[in-house]
Structures are given as structure tokens and as C-alpha cells.
Fold this sequence. Notes:
395 residues, Immunoglobulin-like, six-stranded mixed sheet, globular
Amino acid sequence: MFSPGHDPAQDKIQEKPHTLRSPPVSQAASPAGSSGVPAAGPPHGNTNGFFLAFPHRRRMLSGPRPGWAAALSLANMGSPITVVPMRHFYLIFCASLAMALSCHAQVQVELELEKQQYLSREDLVVGVKITNLSGQTLHLGADDEWLSFMVDDEQNNRPVPREADVPVKKPFELESSKVGTRYVNIAPYYLLQPQGRYKITAIVKLKEWGERLETPGKTVEIIKGSTLWSTTYGVPPKTGQQGVAPDMRKYLLQKVITLKQMQLYVSITDAESDLAYKVLMLGPMVSFSRPEAQLDKLSNLHVLCQSGSKWFFYAVVSPEGNLALRQTYYMGNSRPILKPDGEGGIRVSGGNYQPASSDYPAPTNAAPVYTLPSIGLTNPAAAKPAGKGAKAPKK
């Protein structure tokens, strides 16, 4: 006990924590002459597994206050003390941590990218790879909330605004011990500036388990290309739109030097504002290449570009920005060039057609027959870059 007027904060408490005992509740009243504050101590004499919450009135303690010595000092300073079972807190925390780690070990998610550098408005296709080791079948894709993305501007340290919800609804099942990848083009749904670095993260929600899994983020860079050629064209009217002013757009052939090689791109933009509608990567090019470009009577763009010492790729792009045709040619005895066919179309003259895995449509032994009316009906999803083709033909 402390005498009246004595400052208890200056005394050192001699009892050890394991020897302190609290009097019963009935004896908690302070004797006369004491500070008027009942002695503090653990219930039933138990000094293990408890922690002290912050008092409502905080004061600094001088010197080390082990265990219940700190409690006694605070009690004599007139600060109410809250004693909480520490063992309950540890059990809840450890259980929550174990459940989270167990879920992440059973189902693993990862982000995949085709490359690290893109042009503004180019298709940015990300793959969300899901590995199921849970021992049960996962039911995914039932709505548009099971998969979402976060895109952060690393230079300005802020999230990128989303222009529209990314449609990801497509139900599928993933059996245990299986790996599945869902590919999503996120470029149309986020406003990415012409230049900058962006961190992309995917979030997978397992509603059946009430869990939320997040992939490690990956960084992409939006870069600019140098324009090699451009021309303005009018989009042919659709059925029932005759007699109206044409929609004027612009084709731009752009050279882009990436981390790995030099690539040729085509951009379809507004004729006046240069707002990009579509950006396509046509294929690799060499530094001394001079791409050749011509338009046919339906405003389709024909491009012939050298991709190797004796290799060329030929591509046709529709006015809407869809890839219509891609072929691979070998120089052989004559260099391939573009020539009008006399009927408003464009064809390749010279060189030898060589089937390659990068061709679209799928390669055959003979060059695909190209007809003007079929261009607008081709599949816009063809996205393989043109390669150097097969081996050179034997002489």
C-alpha cells in the first residue's frame, strides 16, 4: 500500500508477476489511508494468457513494468483497466490464418501476359491461370462477378478508371488436379494513356467457399510507335445506308521497337481527331524494310512487308480494323510486290507462297483464294503475329 500523497509511479514493485495474487471481489475495497483504488490482479490468481487493453486515460510509465506490475501501477494512477483473455485472440487469429493459407494452397491463381509492351488501344489480352488442387470440382464463370481486374497507374500512383464492366460470364467447371486459363481482352474497358506503366491484378472469387483470391500483379508499358505511312479513307456504307455521308477514317502503319524485336502495326483512327478505333500487330519487320501499302475499291488495306532476309508477310485489313488475310512469301528468284488485279482488287506478284503457322486462315499447300466480298465476314479474333515462315525451299 502507498501512503497518502506518495507518487506510486516512482516506486519499484518488488513482487514477481507469478507471485502476485488478486484479492476476492468482496475484499477489493481499499483500506483507509490508501489511494482509494482497488488492487488489480488476474481473476482466480491466473497470471497466464491475458493482455491489457489501452486505458481510457493514457499515462507514461517510468521504467520497465513487467506483467501485472504495470497493471498495479496503472490501477493506482486511477486508469480503468480492461483484462481480455489472450488465448481466445490467438486461437481466432491462428484459425483465420490457417484457413486463408489452406485456401491459397488448394487453389492457385496466376496472371499471364503475351508481352510487356503495347500500343494505346491495342488488344491487351490477359490470361488468368487457375490451378485446382482442392480435391473437388470448382464451378466458375456463373456471373460477371467471379473475375475482376485492378489496373493501377504506377507513374501517378492511382487506379485507372474503368469505362465499362468487363464481361467475363461464361460458366465452366474445373476438376481437381486440372489447370484452366481464361483469356480476357481488357483494353476496351480501361482508359490507358498513350504512354505509361500500369500494374494489372486479377481477383478470383470462389462463392462456394466465400473466398477471394488475388494474383500477383504484373506490369505492362504503353508505348508510342513511329508512323511510316498513312492515308484517309471512307468506310463503305452498310445495307440501307446509301446516300449518307461516309464515315471518314485513317490507316496508319507504325513501326514499334519492343524489347525483343521490331514490329509493324496498323492503327485505324478517326480522320480528324486521331482517336484510335483499333490497333493490330501485323508482324515482325527488319530495319531496312520499306512496307508497301495499297487500298482496293472496298477500302481494304493491303500490306506487304519484309520480315527477314528473304521472307515477307502479306496482310489484308478491313475498314473496320479486322484482319482478313495473312500469308507468308519467300523471295526465291523474284521479289514479291503488290499489283492491282484489274477488277478493283490487289494481289501479290512474284515470290513463292510458303505455308506458315502464322497464316490466316489456316495454311494449306496452296495460297488461299482471296475475294473482295468475303473480307467483312472474316474472324476478327485472328491475332497470331506473322513469322518468318517455313524453311526455305530446296533448290
